[in-house]
Amino acid sequence: MNSAPVIDLHSHSNKSDGRESVREVFENAVRSGVNILALTDHDTTSGWQEAEACAREFQIGFVPGIEVTTRANVLGQDGTRHRFGVHMLAYLPNPNDVSLTSALVTSVESRVGRLQEIVAKIAEDYELTWSDVEAELADEATMGRPAVADALVTRGHFNNRGEVFDQLFFKGSPYYVPNTGVPETIEAIELIRRAGGVPIIAHPLSRGKGPAEGEPMPVEHFEEMIAAGLAGFEVMHRDVPEHSRRWLRAMADKHDLIVTGSSDYHGETGKPNRLGENSTELEMFERIVAQASGVAPYLPWLD
Ligand code: AMP
Ligand code: ZN
Ligand code: FE
Ligand code: FE
After folding, report:
1. Is 145 in the pocket of ligand 1 (CB under 6 A)?
2. Whose CA is nearest to atom 10 of ligand 1?
3. 1 has pLDDT over 60
4. Binning pLDDT at 50, 70 and 90, where does residue 209 land?
5. Which residues fall within 8 angstroms of residue 226, CB to CB, at 6 or more apart?
6. What is the residue-averaged pLDDT of the chain?
7. Pairing mode of beta strands 61-75, 36-39
8. Ligand that comes closest to the CA of residue 161
9. Taking the domains of the chain in order of start, what are their residue ranges?
10. In the predicted model, is pLDDT for residue 16 greater than 90?
């Protein structure tokens, strides 16, 4: 490879809430000029085997990953506890690690009840049934609100996923139901490390979730995660605003952490994110591989 390789370490297939099969994601990655792709479906490794087969067939790199749904539990300045969702990317963990897989199974199972509650609330105002939602999901798929959004689009109530998220799933919405069966963020970091994986926060301090420019940044929360074994931050992601990027880069420098850039692709029609729109530096990718002991990436040039 003469120019810098395109390394996209965050993508979803229909094993969770992506709109395309694993094979279609890999076909599109090749077409987009991606050289190394991580498949990081929500709370599942069920796409890995097919992904490795596609990577071999198309001769591109494949990094097995998971986007683990976690809940932070942070003591605020005012003395009260703040709970909010944090997505933790886990690269190269052992897929047979019992502690990690059982936490993921609990998490995936709790999503079903949560989504049924959400659907029941929405069904008071819109024509929608549980089987509409099931019809949007591929076999073994991790359920999530995008499937509810897709069902509402299919029913003709909205034009696309984004509209549903804006109009029904905003912060403080009456249709909101929290994710309860998911591990706490610190616990997830420890589980991933013990499984030989490398934990990197997905889209940290993203728009609408992190502090606005000029507001205090959550130094203690981040230092607690770093002390627990956090490896780095996904800084170059379209949802991470410039002031957050600056702060994250400074934290990464101070603690010698890994910085990545990725797309968070959900398919051509899932979200506007495009494969290869951000890339991780080769040196950073090599640091991830060096820290991992769970499973190896597939890199065709090492075959
Ligand atoms: P859940 O898994 O139910 O918590 O839903 C979270 C998922 O919804 C994430 O994977 C996001 O990619 C997706 N999502 C969040 N906001 C939007 C949006 N505005 N448009 C499309 N998908 C979204
Ligand atoms: Zn998603
Ligand atoms: Fe995410
Ligand atoms: Fe994602």
Report:
1. yes
2. 17
3. no
4. confident
5. 255, 257
6. 95
7. parallel
8. 1
9. 7-110+180-302
10. yes
Instruction: Say yes or no: domain 7-110+180-302 is CATH 3.40.50.720.
Output: no
Q: If you measure from the C-alpha of residue 67 to the centroid of ligand 2, how many angstroms do you get, rounded to a whole number?
A: 8
Can you tell me which residue has the tokens 């690690």?
A: 97
Query: Above pLDDT 90, what percent of the chain?
Result: 89
- Pocket flag, ligand 1, residue 176 (CB < 6 Å): no
Under DSSP, the state recorded for 184 is: B
Query: Does ligand 1 lie within 6 Å of residue 271's CB atom?
Result: yes
237 CB within 6 A, ligand 1 = no
Share of the chain above pLDDT 70, in %: 99
pLDDT tens for 169-185 read: 988 899 999 888 999 99
Gap from CA of 291 to ligand 3 centroid (Å):
22
In a 13 Å sphere around the CA of 45, the CA atoms on its Cβ side amount to 22
Q: What share of the chain is helix, strand, coil (3-state, %, to 5)?
A: 40, 15, 45
pLDDT confidence bin for 79, thresholds 50/70/90: confident
Report, as an integer, the average pLDDT of 54-73. 97
Atom 13 (ligand 1) nearest CA = 146
Taking the C-alpha atoms of residue 41 and residue 13, their distance in angstroms, rounded to an integer, is 6
Smallest CA separation from ligand 1 atom 14, residue: 146
Q: Exposed (0-12), middle (13-18) or buried (19+): which is 287, by Cβ within 10 Å?
A: buried
Q: Is the CB of 17 under 6 A from ligand 1?
A: yes
96, 293 Cβ separation under 8 angstroms: no
